[in-house]
Amino acid sequence: MQSPTPAFVQLTSSWQWAPPREVLRTYALAWLPILLIYMVAVETDGIWTRGFNLFSAMHGTVRNLGPTFLLLLLLWPLTGWMEARRFGAARQIAVHAGTGVLFAFAYYALLWLLIAAESGVAAAERARENWFIWQIQIGMLIYAAAAGAFAAYRAVQRARQEAAAAAQAQMLLARTELAALRNKLNPHFLFNTLHSILALVRKDAVRAEQALFGFSEMLRYLLDTERSGEDQVLLRDELAFTEQYLALESIRLGDRLKIDWQVDDEALAASVPALTVQPLVENSIKHAFNPRSEPGTLMVRVQLAGDRVEIDVADDGPGVQLPADGGLPPGSGLGLPTVARRLALRWGSAASFKVQSAPGAGFQVKVAIPR
Q: Does some domain include residue 197?
């Protein structure tokens, strides 16, 4: 499956002349206080003699700042061009220094031409002599503010898109690892179950035939979940699969296996990764029932606890000495570590996987996952 192109790659591989609407909206809003202050400033000389003339103030403001407003929009494609080529801070400053000078001359020339076209060359020259330097200084300050704002907006967007791309890559990695772990569990389950049936064939062919029919139903569950492409299944279906597995083992173990089901019906609609409960049960069968001839009890308890589903699998077998660091005991095989890892990948710290055991005290696995 082809992975989608990260958004930040699309951003930097092609830049556009026109800013997006949200940038244009913010750009226009940022200009409002500047325009209001400028309207008062251009009318200051006449306020005491003829009063404040709104039309005159607006006319002077649009004429003097209009070119700046439009020219500075060219900073959007300029910042995009530098971003697409991964310019460093020093190169960006150098480019802005050069384009700032060009902007100053362009703004100066446009303003002179507008005044000349409206009031004549003599008026334009008088304006240049009186306050063109002041206009240029304002233009340069606004240039610096606009360049910084556009660059900052692009940097924030790029950071967000890179973070989203990284999260997507992490999610794909987790899914890949989950699929790999499940692919390990499937043959592990098949091998162990077929080994149990093979042992039964040598002792009781009739029971072995019954076991094979049950095994075919279990294979259908595995194939259905494999075809769907979904790792999650209903807890109801996972428990039914586990029950089929225990029915198969009961054919082999006979009266030695007693099963105590304690299931809260309200928890059955919760979702769990496929092959979550069965490996826990298989662990008890392997270590508590296979090595000994005495009868024993396997307890499977499922209950709701607030916003979590708790799954406990316990046996009254010989138990083991757990490591001091609280990890899994040696010889745990593939099932327990794989289930623990899948839960961690799916829910992180929101899920828990705990083992309780001691010599002569049985073995218990306690799993808690979000509903």
A: no
Q: Let me know whether 224 and 339 are in one domain.
A: yes
Predicted confidence (pLDDT) per residue in 44-73, tens digit: 654 444 556 777 777 777 777 777 888 888
> Are 245 and 340 part of one and the same domain?
yes
Q: Which residues contact 312 (CB under 8 A, 6 or more apart)?
A: 299, 300, 301, 302, 364, 365, 366, 367
Q: Is 101 helix (H, G, I), strand (E, B) or coil?
A: helix
Task: For residue range 9-55, list pLDDT tens digits in order.
Answer: 444 434 567 788 888 888 888 888 877 877 777 666 544 445 567 77
DSSP secondary-structure letter at 348? Answer: G
Do 22 and 138 lie in one domain? The reply is: yes
- Same domain for 94 and 16: yes
DSSP 260: E
In this prediction the pTM is 0.52
The position carrying tokens 């009254």 is 316
Question: Model confidence at 258, in pLDDT bands (50, 70, 90)?
Answer: very high
Domain finish residue from 168, 188, 220: 168
Q: What is the pLDDT of residues 339-349, one digit of tens each?
A: 888 888 888 88
Number of domains in the chain: 2
Domain annotation covers residue 175: no
Q: What percent of the chain has pLDDT over 70?
A: 82
Cβ atoms of 152 and 92 within 8 Å: the answer is no
Q: Contact, 308 vs 367, CB < 8 A?
A: no
CA distances from 285 to 59, 195, 319 (A): 90, 13, 12
Which residues touch 178 (CB under 8 Å, ≥6 apart)? 231, 273, 342, 345, 346
Q: Domain residues for 315?
A: 204-370
Q: Is 115 helix (H, G, I), strand (E, B) or coil?
A: helix
Does residue 184 fall inside a structural domain?
no
The percentage of residues in the chain with a pLDDT greater than 90, rounded to a whole number, is: 13
**Within-domain flag for 306:** yes
Residues in contact with 289: Cβ distance below 8 Å, sequence separation at least 6, in sequence order: 249, 253, 256, 257, 296, 298, 315, 317
